[in-house]
Amino acid sequence: MAAVCQVTGAVPGFGHNISHSHRRTKRRFDPNIQKKTYYVPSLGRKVTLTLSVKGIKVIDARGIESVVADLQKRGVKF
Question: Which domains does the chain have, with CATH numbers?
Answer without folding.
Answer: 13-74 (2.30.170.40)
